[in-house]
Amino acid sequence: MKIDGSLTDNLSEIANRARQLESGGYDGAYTFEGPHDPFLPVLLAAEHTERLELSTAIAVAFARNPMTLAQTAYDLQTVSEGRFILGLGSQIRPHIEKRFSMPWSKPAPRMRELALAIRAIWACWHEGAPLRFDGDFYRHTLMTPFFNPGPNPYGPPRLWLAGVGPAMTEVAGEVADGFLVHPFSTERFLREVTLPALERGFARGGRTREGFEIAFPLMILTGDSDDEIAAAEGGVRRQLAFYGSTPAYRRVLDVHGWGELQPELNRLSKEGRWEEMGGLIGDDLVDTFTVRGTSEEIAPKVLARYGDLVDRISFNAPYRADPARWAVVLEGFKVGA
């Protein structure tokens, strides 16, 4: 199992952070589109590392168009010497329309077409294929020599898609090289919903699971003292409450019979009662969505629960933790690897 670490969104600290992850034994490093752009840190990390796989997990797809995504990813693939992974997610409708002022419709078919359009553009540049992509959402039919970067010495980047529901997950299985599991997921949801959807996508695309990577930013709850554990639990409960308030993620709660919690969390979120939301997250829910234990216990527990399900994980910890603790956790995965 590969282990990825997160890059800071502070550009002045990216170089040091990337070097620390590489020297610390991590396999990859990822960015996330939050308060800052997800691509600029990748450029800096590529310049200061030699082997780390570098990914966006995720960049918001519908905030951009296939050509801009194709070009940025192609350039990052070159500067990283073949280590870049373009990870894309849809976000939700209010953000696309109200934050990015971009169109929203039929997210799964749109994402499928966007991925195929990006691949068509890369095929034009790398293989010399004519650019003739004419879809329902995107149209790319013009590419003059001046704007064509030509073949990439490392080939086109890998393309991963994120999703929660079956429709988007099927798209990933059909057209992507990997799938980014949402942090608000569980072993049962992966087995009963995610993997069957991926298999349907593989079948539709005439593909198999071989070479396809599943990455999971898994919530970890760990600490060495009562105070540390209490702080960690508080952070985890708040994060789970935030995710659980989102209507699109109710389907994960429904699998476990907790679906009725979502409307209540959503109501409290609209009233700005964030602290109260965390109080609705019970111990059973915490233990279902997270892996809990001492630093030495985490790796065996993760491998027992998810070892046959995912190919790589990252440590999702919505609380402050001693960096040395993650070194111990990481070592647990590397022993005997």
Outline: globular
Spatial strand arrangement across the major sheet: 1-2-3-5-8-9-10-12
Question: How large is the count of helical segments?
Answer: 14
Structural class, by secondary structure, is: alpha/beta
Strand content: 15-25%
CATH topology: TIM Barrel
Main sheet attributes: strand count, strand direction, barrel closure: 8 strands, parallel, barrel
Q: Quote the average pLDDT.
A: 95
Tell me which CATH architecture applies here: Alpha-Beta Barrel
Provide a short characterization of the protein structure:
With 337 residues, the chain is α/β, with parallel strands linked by helices.
Describe this structure in words.
This protein has helices at 14-23, 40-47, 66-79, 93-99, 107-127, 166-175, 187-205, 226-244, 250-255, 261-270, 274-278, 283-289, 295-306, 323-334; strands at 2-6, 28-31, 53-56, 59-60, 84-89, 133-134, 139-140, 158-163, 178-181, 213-221, 290-292, 312-316. It has an eight-stranded parallel β-barrel with strand order 1-2-3-5-8-9-10-12, surrounded by six helices. A two-stranded antiparallel sheet has the order 6-7. Helix 13 (295-306) packs across helix 14. The radius of gyration is 20 Å and the shape is globular. The protein has one domain: TIM Barrel (Alpha-Beta Barrel). The protein has 337 residues and is α/β, with parallel strands linked by helices.
